[in-house]
Amino acid sequence: MDVQTGFFYLFSLVLLFAAFRVVTARNPVHAVLFLMLAFSQASGVWFLLQSEFLAITLVLVYLGAVMVLFLFVVMMLDINIDTLREGFWRHFPLAAALGALVALEMAAVLMGGFRVSEPQNAAVAQAAVPVANAKALGILLYTEYLMPIQIGAVILLVAMITAIALTLRQRKDSKAINASLQVRVRAEDRLSIIKLAATQAGAAPELTSETQQESK
User: Fold this and answer.
1) Nearest CA to 68 among 37, 44, 36?
2) Rg of the Cα atoms in the chain
3) 24, 35 in Cβ contact below 8 A?
4) Residues 55, 46: contact at Cβ < 8 Å?
5) Nearest by Cα to 32 from 67, 62, 73
6) Is the dihedral of CA 204, 205, 207, 211 positive or negative?
7) pTM recorded for the entire structure
8) How is residue 198 annotated by DSSP?
Protein backbone atom coordinates (compact mmCIF):
# COMPACT_ATOMS: atom_id res chain seq x y z
CA MET A 1 0.00 0.00 0.00
CA ASP A 2 1.45 3.35 -1.05
CA VAL A 3 1.08 6.66 0.76
CA GLN A 4 -1.76 7.93 -1.43
CA THR A 5 -3.85 4.81 -0.79
CA GLY A 6 -3.20 5.09 2.94
CA PHE A 7 -4.39 8.69 3.00
CA PHE A 8 -7.46 7.71 0.98
CA TYR A 9 -8.46 5.07 3.53
CA LEU A 10 -7.74 7.46 6.40
CA PHE A 11 -9.87 10.25 4.93
CA SER A 12 -12.64 7.80 4.03
CA LEU A 13 -12.81 6.24 7.51
CA VAL A 14 -12.93 9.63 9.23
CA LEU A 15 -15.52 10.81 6.70
CA LEU A 16 -17.79 7.81 7.37
CA PHE A 17 -17.43 8.21 11.13
CA ALA A 18 -18.23 11.93 10.95
CA ALA A 19 -21.26 11.32 8.70
CA PHE A 20 -22.54 8.67 11.14
CA ARG A 21 -22.13 11.05 14.07
CA VAL A 22 -23.99 13.80 12.20
CA VAL A 23 -27.07 11.57 12.18
CA THR A 24 -26.71 10.11 15.67
CA ALA A 25 -25.47 13.14 17.66
CA ARG A 26 -28.02 14.38 20.20
CA ASN A 27 -26.60 17.89 20.42
CA PRO A 28 -27.25 19.98 17.25
CA VAL A 29 -24.01 21.91 17.74
CA HIS A 30 -22.04 18.66 17.85
CA ALA A 31 -23.86 17.50 14.70
CA VAL A 32 -22.82 20.66 12.85
CA LEU A 33 -19.21 20.26 14.00
CA PHE A 34 -19.16 16.64 12.79
CA LEU A 35 -20.60 17.80 9.46
CA MET A 36 -17.76 20.29 9.13
CA LEU A 37 -15.32 17.46 9.83
CA ALA A 38 -16.98 15.36 7.13
CA PHE A 39 -16.65 18.19 4.60
CA SER A 40 -12.97 18.63 5.42
CA GLN A 41 -12.30 14.92 4.88
CA ALA A 42 -14.22 14.98 1.60
CA SER A 43 -12.03 17.88 0.53
CA GLY A 44 -8.95 15.75 1.28
CA VAL A 45 -10.34 12.91 -0.86
CA TRP A 46 -10.90 15.34 -3.73
CA PHE A 47 -7.31 16.54 -3.41
CA LEU A 48 -6.16 12.94 -3.79
CA LEU A 49 -8.32 12.65 -6.92
CA GLN A 50 -6.56 15.76 -8.33
CA SER A 51 -9.71 17.88 -8.17
CA GLU A 52 -8.11 20.89 -6.56
CA PHE A 53 -10.81 23.34 -7.60
CA LEU A 54 -13.63 21.32 -6.06
CA ALA A 55 -11.64 20.71 -2.88
CA ILE A 56 -10.82 24.40 -2.39
CA THR A 57 -14.40 25.38 -3.24
CA LEU A 58 -15.72 22.95 -0.63
CA VAL A 59 -13.41 24.40 2.03
CA LEU A 60 -14.05 28.06 1.18
CA VAL A 61 -17.79 27.94 0.49
CA TYR A 62 -19.11 25.28 2.85
CA LEU A 63 -16.61 25.26 5.70
CA GLY A 64 -15.80 28.95 5.52
CA ALA A 65 -19.30 30.37 5.04
CA VAL A 66 -22.28 28.03 5.01
CA MET A 67 -21.38 25.75 7.91
CA VAL A 68 -20.21 28.65 10.08
CA LEU A 69 -23.57 30.31 9.42
CA PHE A 70 -25.37 27.07 10.33
CA LEU A 71 -23.32 26.83 13.51
CA PHE A 72 -24.20 30.36 14.64
CA VAL A 73 -27.89 29.85 13.80
CA VAL A 74 -28.03 26.57 15.73
CA MET A 75 -26.26 28.14 18.70
CA MET A 76 -28.61 31.14 18.77
CA LEU A 77 -31.84 29.14 18.40
CA ASP A 78 -33.43 27.49 21.39
CA ILE A 79 -34.01 24.05 19.87
CA ASN A 80 -36.15 21.60 21.79
CA ILE A 81 -34.54 18.20 21.23
CA ASP A 82 -37.48 16.24 22.65
CA THR A 83 -39.88 17.84 20.19
CA LEU A 84 -37.62 17.07 17.25
CA ARG A 85 -37.31 13.42 18.23
CA GLU A 86 -41.05 12.85 18.39
CA GLY A 87 -42.20 10.32 15.80
CA PHE A 88 -38.68 8.96 15.17
CA TRP A 89 -39.64 5.30 15.36
CA ARG A 90 -42.79 5.91 13.34
CA HIS A 91 -40.74 7.10 10.33
CA PHE A 92 -37.83 4.75 10.94
CA PRO A 93 -39.04 1.88 8.62
CA LEU A 94 -39.35 4.21 5.62
CA ALA A 95 -35.99 5.83 6.33
CA ALA A 96 -34.32 2.42 6.75
CA ALA A 97 -35.80 1.18 3.47
CA LEU A 98 -34.58 4.24 1.57
CA GLY A 99 -31.13 3.95 3.16
CA ALA A 100 -30.88 0.27 2.23
CA LEU A 101 -31.91 1.09 -1.36
CA VAL A 102 -29.22 3.77 -1.66
CA ALA A 103 -26.62 1.40 -0.16
CA LEU A 104 -27.53 -1.36 -2.62
CA GLU A 105 -27.30 1.02 -5.58
CA MET A 106 -23.89 2.28 -4.46
CA ALA A 107 -22.68 -1.30 -3.92
CA ALA A 108 -23.84 -2.27 -7.40
CA VAL A 109 -22.01 0.67 -8.96
CA LEU A 110 -18.81 0.04 -7.00
CA MET A 111 -18.80 -3.71 -7.65
CA GLY A 112 -19.47 -3.20 -11.35
CA GLY A 113 -16.71 -0.63 -11.67
CA PHE A 114 -16.27 2.11 -14.22
CA ARG A 115 -15.19 0.30 -17.35
CA VAL A 116 -13.87 2.29 -20.28
CA SER A 117 -12.63 0.72 -23.46
CA GLU A 118 -8.89 0.68 -24.09
CA PRO A 119 -8.95 2.65 -27.38
CA GLN A 120 -10.73 5.51 -25.59
CA ASN A 121 -8.16 5.40 -22.78
CA ALA A 122 -5.32 5.54 -25.29
CA ALA A 123 -6.90 8.46 -27.11
CA VAL A 124 -7.45 10.35 -23.87
CA ALA A 125 -3.85 9.66 -22.81
CA GLN A 126 -2.52 10.98 -26.11
CA ALA A 127 -4.70 14.08 -26.03
CA ALA A 128 -3.98 14.84 -22.37
CA VAL A 129 -2.04 18.01 -21.72
CA PRO A 130 -0.09 18.48 -18.47
CA VAL A 131 -2.20 21.39 -17.20
CA ALA A 132 -3.34 21.94 -13.63
CA ASN A 133 -6.95 21.12 -12.86
CA ALA A 134 -7.91 24.61 -11.70
CA LYS A 135 -6.12 26.25 -14.63
CA ALA A 136 -7.81 23.99 -17.18
CA LEU A 137 -11.21 24.68 -15.59
CA GLY A 138 -10.59 28.42 -15.62
CA ILE A 139 -9.54 28.38 -19.29
CA LEU A 140 -12.68 26.39 -20.17
CA LEU A 141 -15.02 28.65 -18.20
CA TYR A 142 -13.68 31.92 -19.60
CA THR A 143 -13.39 30.80 -23.22
CA GLU A 144 -16.13 28.36 -24.18
CA TYR A 145 -18.57 29.13 -21.37
CA LEU A 146 -17.92 32.86 -21.05
CA MET A 147 -21.48 33.94 -21.87
CA PRO A 148 -23.19 31.64 -19.28
CA ILE A 149 -20.67 32.82 -16.66
CA GLN A 150 -21.49 36.46 -17.42
CA ILE A 151 -25.25 35.79 -17.31
CA GLY A 152 -24.89 34.00 -13.97
CA ALA A 153 -22.83 36.89 -12.58
CA VAL A 154 -25.47 39.43 -13.65
CA ILE A 155 -28.24 37.34 -12.04
CA LEU A 156 -26.30 37.13 -8.78
CA LEU A 157 -25.62 40.89 -8.88
CA VAL A 158 -29.32 41.64 -9.40
CA ALA A 159 -30.23 39.31 -6.53
CA MET A 160 -27.72 41.01 -4.22
CA ILE A 161 -28.96 44.51 -5.11
CA THR A 162 -32.58 43.38 -4.61
CA ALA A 163 -31.81 41.97 -1.17
CA ILE A 164 -30.11 45.22 -0.15
CA ALA A 165 -33.02 47.29 -1.51
CA LEU A 166 -35.56 45.21 0.43
CA THR A 167 -33.69 45.80 3.68
CA LEU A 168 -33.35 49.55 3.09
CA ARG A 169 -36.99 50.29 2.33
CA GLN A 170 -38.82 52.75 4.57
CA ARG A 171 -40.94 51.22 7.32
CA LYS A 172 -43.15 52.96 9.85
CA ASP A 173 -42.16 50.70 12.73
CA SER A 174 -38.40 50.92 12.13
CA LYS A 175 -36.25 53.38 14.07
CA ALA A 176 -33.78 54.40 11.41
CA ILE A 177 -31.08 57.01 11.93
CA ASN A 178 -30.17 59.45 9.19
CA ALA A 179 -26.41 59.85 9.34
CA SER A 180 -26.39 62.95 7.13
CA LEU A 181 -28.67 64.81 9.56
CA GLN A 182 -26.45 63.87 12.46
CA VAL A 183 -23.37 65.17 10.65
CA ARG A 184 -25.02 68.52 9.81
CA VAL A 185 -26.41 69.08 13.31
CA ARG A 186 -25.47 72.27 15.18
CA ALA A 187 -25.17 72.94 18.88
CA GLU A 188 -27.80 75.71 18.64
CA ASP A 189 -30.34 73.18 17.38
CA ARG A 190 -29.82 70.81 20.29
CA LEU A 191 -29.22 73.16 23.25
CA SER A 192 -31.06 76.34 24.22
CA ILE A 193 -29.59 78.60 26.94
CA ILE A 194 -32.11 80.74 28.83
CA LYS A 195 -30.93 83.55 31.11
CA LEU A 196 -32.69 83.65 34.46
CA ALA A 197 -32.35 86.07 37.32
CA ALA A 198 -30.17 84.97 40.19
CA THR A 199 -32.92 85.62 42.79
CA GLN A 200 -36.62 86.14 42.42
CA ALA A 201 -38.98 87.56 45.03
CA GLY A 202 -41.67 85.21 46.16
CA ALA A 203 -45.35 86.06 46.04
CA ALA A 204 -46.90 87.43 49.29
CA PRO A 205 -49.30 84.96 50.95
CA GLU A 206 -52.97 85.94 51.03
CA LEU A 207 -54.39 86.52 54.55
CA THR A 208 -57.74 84.91 55.20
CA SER A 209 -60.14 85.66 58.07
CA GLU A 210 -58.91 82.69 60.08
CA THR A 211 -55.28 83.70 59.81
CA GLN A 212 -56.16 87.28 60.80
CA GLN A 213 -57.91 86.09 63.97
CA GLU A 214 -54.96 83.85 64.83
CA SER A 215 -52.58 86.77 64.40
CA LYS A 216 -54.65 88.90 66.81
Assistant:
1) 36
2) 36
3) no
4) yes
5) 67
6) negative
7) 0.53
8) S
